[in-house]
Amino acid sequence: MTTETIRSTLAARRSGAITWVRIRPFVIHLALAAAALVMLYPVIWMVVSSLRPGNEIFREPGLLVKDLRIENYRVGWNALTEPFTRYLLNSAAVVLGSVVGNLVSCSMAAYAFARLEFVGKKFWFAIMLLSIMLPIHVVIVPQYILFSQAGWINTFLPLVIPKMLATDAFFIFLMVQFIRGIPRELDEAARIDGCGRAGTFLRVILPLMVPALATTAIFTFIWTWNDFFSQLIYLTDPKMYTVPVALRSFVDATAESSWGSMFAMSVVSLVPIFLAFLLGQRFLIKGIATTGIK
């Protein structure tokens, strides 16, 4: 093989490598866009179905709307025994109580596990971690009996009060790991300045926990807003229904279901979730990225 042939072969390889380096980002982004489209297709189909007549929803699998029916939203808003506003306000009340309860109780429990020394600390921390693996179906019956004897059935108390008692071990563990990353020298400096345990927690630790608190608030908001099982168990009066339970009322097992109205209200129920994620995405990513297993 002559020198000219070798040089031409190397030049062709370099040219091909340069071309692939330029094309590679485009190929990667194209593949990611295709995967995102596949994952978003059910949501897009639901939005399109909310604008279709009921008899065309399952007959037309495509995304083109031939007969636009905006009145599905008006009909769906008033289709149940109460206006859909009532169910949105009920969900907002449950979500607000759950978010505040988790932020207050879980942050205090996490501070105790991360900074304080008490008898049986490691044992109780292990018990707390084990409770993460305990399914809700195991405890729902004794909880229902307890809340029934307390007269809390058909109220928001069974959905909110447990959040105020630091029952979500996942968020406690998340905050414990975050607090362990805060230098203890800050605690010692606050103690020298005259702060006690409570003052150190409120004035030093808590302001530095904003990413972890924001992550807890966002996850609590999404999980509580989408919770169906617990709300179905404890809420029996239609006036007390939350959004997930109200959406179930659109599906009638004995008569024709109002699919157009149900999809329209499903789209409405997704709006708070999208807003919460978009507005809190920066804090969510920062909170997860700065919370690791140490």
Automatic annotation (TrEMBL):
<keyword id="KW-0472">Membrane</keyword>
<dbReference type="Pfam" id="PF00528">
    <property type="entry name" value="BPD_transp_1"/>
</dbReference>
<feature type="transmembrane region" description="Helical">
    <location>
        <begin position="159"/>
        <end position="179"/>
    </location>
</feature>
<feature type="transmembrane region" description="Helical">
    <location>
        <begin position="200"/>
        <end position="225"/>
    </location>
</feature>
<keyword id="KW-1133">Transmembrane helix</keyword>
<protein>
    <submittedName>
        <fullName>Multiple sugar transport system permease protein</fullName>
    </submittedName>
</protein>
<keyword id="KW-0813">Transport</keyword>
<keyword id="KW-0762">Sugar transport</keyword>
<dbReference type="InterPro" id="IPR035906">
    <property type="entry name" value="MetI-like_sf"/>
</dbReference>
<dbReference type="GO" id="GO:0055085">
    <property type="term" value="P:transmembrane transport"/>
</dbReference>
<keyword id="KW-0812">Transmembrane</keyword>
<keyword id="KW-1003">Cell membrane</keyword>
<feature type="transmembrane region" description="Helical">
    <location>
        <begin position="123"/>
        <end position="147"/>
    </location>
</feature>
<feature type="domain" description="ABC transmembrane type-1">
    <location>
        <begin position="88"/>
        <end position="280"/>
    </location>
</feature>
<comment type="similarity">
    <text>Belongs to the binding-protein-dependent transport system permease family.</text>
</comment>
<feature type="transmembrane region" description="Helical">
    <location>
        <begin position="26"/>
        <end position="48"/>
    </location>
</feature>
<feature type="transmembrane region" description="Helical">
    <location>
        <begin position="87"/>
        <end position="111"/>
    </location>
</feature>
<feature type="transmembrane region" description="Helical">
    <location>
        <begin position="259"/>
        <end position="279"/>
    </location>
</feature>
<dbReference type="InterPro" id="IPR000515">
    <property type="entry name" value="MetI-like"/>
</dbReference>
<dbReference type="GO" id="GO:0005886">
    <property type="term" value="C:plasma membrane"/>
</dbReference>
